[in-house]
Predict the 3D structure of the following.
Amino acid sequence: MSKIKIENLQKRYFERRSRLRSADDVPDSGKQICVLDGIDLEIEEGEMVCILGPSGAGKSTLLRIVAGHDNASAGRILINNKEINGPSQDNIFVYQQNGLLPWYSVWENVELGLRHIEDEEEKNNRIHEFIDIVELTGFEYHYPHQLSGGMQRRAELARALAVNPDILFMDEPFTGLDYLTHLKIREEVINMHSYYQKTTLMVTHFIDDALIMADRIVVLGERPAKVKMVEKLDYARPRNIETERGLRELRDQIFLMLGVSYVA
Ligand SMILES: Nc1ncnc2c1ncn2[C@@H]1O[C@H](COP(=O)(O)OP(=O)(O)OP(=O)(O)O)[C@@H](O)[C@H]1O
Ligand SMILES: [Mg+2]
C-alpha cells in the first residue's frame, strides 16, 4: 500500500497559438496559462480520495502529474516518501478518454498488465475473473471497435483492476456508462476498495459518486486551481445520500461551490 504526498504543485502550460505570419511579427513566446496553483495534499495508505472541480480546472492534469505521466512546473510528488520521476508499475491509470489498445481484443487488453505472471493457468483465471466482474464474458475476443462505449469503459476497468496495483488513478471512470452499469460498476469499485484497500485517487464530475465512494473529498476551484475544500466523510457504507442528512447538506454546499444553486 502506498501513501502520496503532493507538495506545492504548480503547472503552467505554454500557449502556442500565435504563429508568425510575416517577418515583422514578434513571437509571442512568453505566454503561459497557469493551471494548478500550489496544490498541497496528502493521501493516506489505502485511502480513497475523490477530486471534484469545474471543467478545465486542471483535475486530469493533476492526476497525470501525480501518476508520473506529466511534469510539474514546480513542487513535487512523493510516493512512500520517495520523489517520483515518471510512471511506475506500482500504479495504474484509467484514462478519461478511451485507453484500450484498438488492435488488441478484450482478453489481450486485460492480459496486458499481467504479462509478468508466469503461471499461464493463474493468469488465465485472473483474466476470466475480471472480465466476469465487469460482465463482459462472451466478448473476450471482440476488439474495442466492436464494443459499445459502455462496454469499452468496462473492459478498461477490468484491465486496471486485474493488475491489482498499489495505487489506482481513475479519471472519470464511469463516463459513458449507462445509468445502471454506472451504479453496478461503482458498487464493484467500492467493494474492491473495501476488500483490497488500495490507495485510490479518482477524478469525477458526479458529486454523488464522490459522496458515496470517498473517504475524503477534495474540491478544486476555477483555473488556476487551488484546493477549495477538503472534507473527510466519516459515514458507514453502504451510504445513502437521501437518508443521510450530512451528505445531503454537503452535496448542496458543493453544488453551490461549483456555481450551481441546486434546488432539489
Ligand atoms: N497539453 C496541454 N497543453 C496546453 N494546455 C493544456 C494541456 N492539457 C491541458 N491543458 C489546459 O489545462 C487546463 C486544464 O485541463 P484538464 O484537462 O486538466 O482539465 P479538467 O479539470 O480535467 O477538465 P474536464 O473536467 O473537462 O476533464 C485546460 O484549460 C486545458 O486547456
Ligand atoms: Mg479531465
In short: The mean pLDDT is 89.
